[in-house]
Amino acid sequence: MKLHTYLNYGGNCRQAFRFYEEHLGGHITMMLTHGQQPNPDSTPAEWKDSIMYARMEIGETELMGSDVPSDRFQPMRSVYLSLTVDSTEEAERIYALLSEGGQIFMPMEETFFAFRFAMLRDRFGTSWMILHERPRP
């Protein structure tokens, strides 16, 4: 059994996955538009370029996503992608990238459990926890 994370986007799935690929070291393994499906004539013209299914690898994790109609899209609530990194510098770099144009819930700071920890929602609507853990006793 394997558990995957599937994200919905309000029309910016392609931009989000390209951003994560470029800045988080991800690798997009599939990106299919509604216009590329077997029966594209049934797709409204305004949806032909929207993402029907995307898949990428980030580290050891596979992330999937797609666009949904904007009236059904809501930014993530009460759920976070938790990204653990190996250095304070990497935590700070990723925090700066993901927080730009987003919403910060907890600024990057040192905690009792981490050298660096932050919680935010990026400009694409995805909520993140960024963590550079302290060694466990």
Produce a short descriptive summary:
This protein is α/β, with parallel strands linked by helices.
Task: Please explain how this structure is put together.
The chain has helices at 13-24, 88-99, and strands at residues 5-9, 27-33, 51-58, 61-67, 81-84, 103-109, 114-121, 127-133. The protein is an alpha/beta fold and 137 residues long. The chain folds into two domains: 5-67, Signal recognition particle alu RNA binding heterodimer, srp9/1 (2-Layer Sandwich); 81-133, Signal recognition particle alu RNA binding heterodimer, srp9/1 (2-Layer Sandwich), CATH 3.30.720. A four-stranded mixed beta sheet has the order 1-4-3-2, covered by helices on one side. A four-stranded mixed beta sheet has the order 5-8-7-6, covered by helices on one side. The chain is elongated and about 60 Å long. The model has no long low-confidence stretch (mean pLDDT 94).
Topology, element by element:
Layout: E1 5-9, H1 13-24, E2 27-33, E3 51-58, E4 61-67, E5 81-84, H2 88-99, E6 103-109, E7 114-121, E8 127-133
Parallel strand pairs: 1-4, 5-8
Antiparallel strand pairs: 2-3, 3-4, 6-7, 7-8
User: Largest beta sheet, briefly?
Assistant: 4 strands, mixed
Beta-strand content bin: 35-45%
Task: Enumerate the strands of the largest sheet in spatial order, edge to edge or round the barrel.
Answer: 1-4-3-2
Order of helices and strands: EHEEEEHEEE
Output mean pLDDT. Answer: 94
Amount of helix: 10-25%
